[in-house]
Amino acid sequence: MENKKGKQERRFAIANREALIGCALAVINFVWWYGFAYGLGSKPPEEYTYILGFPAWIFFSVILGTLFMFGLVFLAVNFLLTDISLEDEDESEEAEDEVMNV
Amino acid sequence: MNWAVIIPLLIFLIVIFLVGIWSNRKLAKAEGFLSDYFLGSREFGGLVLAMTMVATYGSASSFLGGPGAAYTIGFGWVLLAMSQVATGYFVLLILGKKFAIVSRRYNAVTLVDFLKERYKSTTVVLLSAFSIIVFLFSAMAAQWVGGAYLIQSLTGINYVAALFIFTLSVLVYVTIGGFRAVVITDTVQGIVMFFGTLLLLIAVIVAGGGISNIFSDLVSINPNMITPFGHDGSLSAAYVSSYWILVGVGVVAVPQVAVRAMSYKDSKSMHRAIMIGTVVVGTIMFGMHLIGVFARPILPGIEVADQVIPLVALEVLPPWAAGLLLAAPLAAIMSTVDSLLLLVSSTVVKDLYINYVKPKATENQVKQVSMGVTALIGIVAFLLAISPPDLMIFLNLFAFGGLEAAFMWPLILGLYWKHANKTGAIASMITGIGSYIAIHFYNQAYGDLFGVHTVTVPVFLSLIVCIVFSLAFKQKAYEFPVQNIKKEA
């Protein structure tokens, strides 16, 4: 029982950390989105500069920002998330579970 | 009738039917009826999980209302729509593995199941079941109307007949196939939506004579269209940002989305779903809203802006491609409706009938009641949709925001804060819904409070109330059970 509890704590600790990663991603996403949109877009449209045919604020905030988030999410998933078992395995499956925990 | 448009649509509907029948056979072999019918035995992989989340979330408003608003308002609305990229990673990361582990241990099949075990309170169960039924039923009826309008505008048959076709196709596969049918069709629909968006975007850019050309046309129509502030300059940064709560991070608490966060097979599926989901939702939202604005110079005089996507598709694509593509919004609507239908039905069956009416119901009774209730709810929605309410998006967003305000903190604090208790949860739900409705009417009468969307204040209020009441009526800190609570799933 104690063993099980320790295992639970470990898996929950991983889950808590990943929830915080989710929050961090959303904050970065928001800052990028807001910063470029209102930083570059708040002047009269005649003064806009264009990149690849799009006004700069749209290019940086909406297009590049979205691609940047795609990249960031890929990196976060591949380097920060941990593979864990979601089941409550029996003792017999213990070994297999250990293999899965890299 | 335009058969070149209708035939691809028909093929699409037939595929959906076949999925329903296949799921029904699989269902017959599954071990626990309830967990299979309402959750597909928690066996979904990454692609399917991502697609079902995107398809459930992306509704009529992503394909009809949203691009319509972009058509009228311009790039301010495209910017606003991009707050939805967050849903791709945020929901799965926040509910995450903890929700998946705990819901397995609880044998939870619905969001209400989770709340029931976590807070052990009849009031919480009834309150949440009640708000799901009321709010989601109205959202569903609105989508129902959208689906029928779309069939009507594509085929030219009258509204009631269109409604009937829509009801029949949805009811058959949801009733017999359950969650598995919903999720597999969501995947097919999600793929159609994804590639349809890309195809239409390219066709629209070509028809508009290239991006630079479209922008100079937009500037000559109204230079404000290409600013973040909307066609009349009235879209404030605060208002647009508040959509991050409504359609971005708040989506975590929308029951039909949250329930999917307990349906995946293993953590690898979840990781893949986060990547696929972010890319798919980002591409669809960006593409569809961009198409909405870019359609402005191509088709300047559209009176009902919601019809911009069907009209522009028929304008810029050959008929067969338009038919295939217009399966996308229909897919979006169907995939939202099917999830809502199943969720409302699971709430009635699992959370009310089995909990309070007949706890000892046999497998067969549960099966009959589940399918019967699902069919009945669909038929009621059909009858209500015959004389439809006008404001489709309005109803949809009302349900969305109201549920977010109600469930966000009982769900998130229930998962991550051991001192959250039933008093806090009840107070938080009442505050969330109550203040949402109150502020909604205030905003209608006097303009937006603090210049932000209705959902903003209730979400913060319900957080404060949840914490204050949990601490004021303090109970023993909650520990999650360390093993499965033995119970029939």
Helix and strand sequence of chain A = HEEHH
Domain unit count of chain A: 1
- How far apart, in Å, are the first and last alpha carbons of chain A? 24 Å
The largest β sheet of chain B comes out as: none
SSE-based structural type of chain A = mainly alpha
Question: In one word, what is the shape of chain A?
Answer: elongated
The value of Rg of chain A in angstroms is 22 Å
Distance between the termini of chain B: 49 Å
The number of helical runs of chain B is: 19
- Hey, roughly how much beta strand do the residues of chain A contain? under 5%
DSSP strand content of chain B: under 5%
Q: How many domains make up the 3D coordinates of chain B?
A: 1
Please explain how this structure is put together.
- The complex is a heterodimer of chains A (102) and B (489).
- Chain A has one domain (2-83).
- By secondary structure, chain A is mainly alpha-helical.
- Chain A is 70% helix and 4% strand.
- In chain A, helix 1 runs antiparallel to helix 2 (56-79).
- In chain A, strands 1-2 form a two-stranded antiparallel sheet.
- Chain A contains 3 helices and 2 strands, in the order αββαα.
- In chain A, a hairpin with a 2-residue loop joins strand 1 (50-51) and strand 2 (54-55).
- Mean pLDDT of chain A is 82; it is low at 90-102.
- Chain B is mostly helical and 489 residues long.
- Chain B has a single domain, classed as Up-down Bundle (Sodium/glucose cotransporter).
- In chain B, 77% of the residues lie in helices and 0% in strands.
- Chain B is built from 19 helices and no strands.
- Chain B has helices spanning 3-29, 33-39, 46-57, 60-73, 75-81, 85-106, 111-119, 122-155, 159-207, 211-221, 237-248, 255-258, 267-298, 308-316, 319-357, 363-385, 392-416, 422-446, 456-472.
- In chain B, helix 4 (60-73) crosses helix 15 (319-357), helix 5 packs parallel to helix 11 and helix 8 (122-155) crosses helix 16 (363-385).
- The longest helix of chain B is centred in the middle third of the chain and has 49 residues, at 159-207.
- Chain B is globular.
- The model of chain B has no long low-confidence stretch (mean pLDDT 84).
- The interface between A and B is large, with 55 and 51 residues.
